[in-house]
Amino acid sequence: MSHPKPRPFTIDQLHAYLVEIFPQVWKSGDLRIEGLAPMAATVRLVHNPRHLRYGGTVAGPAMFALCDVALYVAILGEVGRVAHAVTTSVSINFLLKPAPADLIGKARLIKLGKRLAVGEVELYSDGTSDMVAHAVGTYSIPARGDDAPS
Amino acid sequence: MSHPKPRPFTIDQLHAYLVEIFPQVWKSGDLRIEGLAPMAATVRLVHNPRHLRYGGTVAGPAMFALCDVALYVAILGEVGRVAHAVTTSVSINFLLKPAPADLIGKARLIKLGKRLAVGEVELYSDGTSDMVAHAVGTYSIPARGDDAPS
Amino acid sequence: MSHPKPRPFTIDQLHAYLVEIFPQVWKSGDLRIEGLAPMAATVRLVHNPRHLRYGGTVAGPAMFALCDVALYVAILGEVGRVAHAVTTSVSINFLLKPAPADLIGKARLIKLGKRLAVGEVELYSDGTSDMVAHAVGTYSIPARGDDAPS
Amino acid sequence: MSHPKPRPFTIDQLHAYLVEIFPQVWKSGDLRIEGLAPMAATVRLVHNPRHLRYGGTVAGPAMFALCDVALYVAILGEVGRVAHAVTTSVSINFLLKPAPADLIGKARLIKLGKRLAVGEVELYSDGTSDMVAHAVGTYSIPARGDDAPS
Predict the structure, then answer these.
(1) Interface test with chain C among B92, B130, B134, by most C beta carbons within 10 Å
(2) How many other C-beta atoms are found inside a 10 Å radius of the C-beta of residue B38?
(3) In terms of DSSP bridges, do strands C57-58 and C52-53 run parallel, antiparallel, or are they unpaired?
(4) pLDDT tens for residues A62-93?
(5) Residue numbers of chain B with a pLDDT score lower than 50
(6) How far does the CA of residue D4 sit from the closest CA of chain C (Å)?
(7) What is the ipTM of this complex?
(8) What is the DSSP track for D30-92?
(9) How far apart, in whole angstroms, are the C-alpha atoms of residue C147 and residue B15?
């Protein structure tokens, strides 16, 4: 896969777009795009006691949300302003109880068709090398240009 | 499956236990146990604009969280005070974009072993008969008595 | 769900169609359609030592194949001659080691759109009430009429 | 992850062990171990018309079986003679219709605990670089030494 065409977003541009279309998720600053590359993105979920569950570990839904967001960022990083891309399925395995720390989600697209994307995400606790969760998700992508907010 | 033994919780008792062990999730009143039966539970997620995503539909992570919670409630409703039960995997299919309304999660356990539970959840938008999401989850259950908060 | 329209197949007609389009799978007689109902189908995999694995239990791939086939039968039972319908994803949980006996797959469609179907399958060992496996699958359905063998 | 300890099998030794414990699967020669590395294995499914489905493409169950086998080989390559290791779940996404050719399954373990392994598999059509399927599986591993055939 060659990518001679210009990338649709820099990290800052994509972050600004996400704050615009998902203010309830991106305005708080809990999520940060740490990397954007062809077919890949890295997103950090800043630690917040609100994400914890019984036993002091990060709750499953917070980990799911980070996987979902990391794949969405990877897709937008390839395709551009497709706010309406929606998750159609996710399979997630929780591997280790993460420490109460930042989580890093590393997403990689394994298929990017015109209307469908499939990707996987590895989740790490910041500063450790053991994967805490692994997810595979599929996204439905609307026809391009359909839904760019003007 | 016969259940001659007394059920570990009434709905009110289980709700009180959940508020005690997961105050950050259950204290707000957004979640309500609507039914508890052998191997099954129904949980309502009260509509809140915070759960929406771009396009006015309920966000995937909010739907995932309800599935996860409904299975957890079904397990506790069978097994009792096992706060440390943890999700080990979830596969979720998003079927329809739900309206901005309450969501109803109907969980049913399909296997309940000593250390492992498997269940499925059907998600509905309140007042409609079309399923908006379907999930299958597995839980690891600690040895009973291990983790009841004293 | 009302079904005033005539059903596309009787069990015998659907079996004949499957032998025609998938002779390598259906001609041996190992698979039998036991029931066909709106949005549902029951398929039997006749016991064959070839399906066993180490330890005398039915191999995972044989169980997967039955889940896949049962969903396919349920879809064709609704939609008619869409031989090109293809599985796009399956999540399967293996719950118990089945005895070396016939397996019964009970498929139920939970969504049937124009181009996509989602269904679940419960697998039982013949004569027992404990589920041995549970699967959720998604299928892509070609535009109708596209692929009926003439 | 350091692996100073001797590897339990060479490729030939592992192949011989698989023929011994799963003759119905490994004796035909359709499956070949092409690579064995720490936490990883590559297995080839030799093309056979029997694996095809309507439309001339490889059937889903044949692809599932290769994913399952490749993970099993990766686990045995790490752990040794644990014939009784059993698949507990698999989520598979079918990405492209493969050509009627050999399939290559590249398995990588992402967690290897004492009793549980989790891994992913990428499936390719021989000679092409596009992934045709992607699976994530979990295995239950018996206590070591329990089940080595004497």
Answers:
(1) B134
(2) 12
(3) antiparallel
(4) 999 999 999 999 999 999 998 788 999 999 99
(5) 146-150
(6) 31
(7) 0.90
(8) -EEEEEEETTEEEEEE---GGGEETTTEE-HHHHHHHHHHHHHHHHHHHH-S-TT-EEEEEEE
(9) 54
